[in-house]
Amino acid sequence: MKPLRTLTHAFTLASLMTAASFSAQAQDILIGGTAIEDDVVTNVLAIDKDKRVVTVAGPKDSQVPIQLSEQAKALDNLKVGDRVNVHVTRSVATVLDTTVGGEPGASKEAGVIRATKDNPNPGGEAFRQIKITSKITKIDLKTHEVTLLPPEGPQKVVKVEDPELQKKMDKLKEGQTVDLIYTDVLKITTSHEG
Asked: Which residues are the signal sequence here (predicted)?
């Protein structure tokens, strides 16, 4: 597990994410996937409640200002010196839709879950999911290549390198779709120091 390159990167991700959920249908087959997790622990250095800006300690003694939205309801509970824990999970899944007749497309879902009433400390979870659907237009079993039509742009030829996936290529049909699903989950917890 590698830490994020910078704390700023983590909070840039936080500002981009706002909850998503993806559920695979019965005719969907997971082809592959990867996931990574990162943790960042920092402290609150300053709070400007009027401007809704919280400044936290960054790498190498830097300071990182974070602009909070109106959704940050428990700002009054945050104090200078509080510890902030940020846990980021990023995943990419490739899913084959076995039905024929799908079309290329793209969708995005996002949302926020705030801390519960039992936890007065500010925090919560943010989710973002992007799904890119490409249509299979050609399958070449000899060269282990699949031609995909993405939502925008020209067709792309993908070489299937994995021997296990190569064995399954004869089950593919033109007109099926392949989804690339990118999911980011950001969980922020805070605790009072002292």
From this structure: 1-26
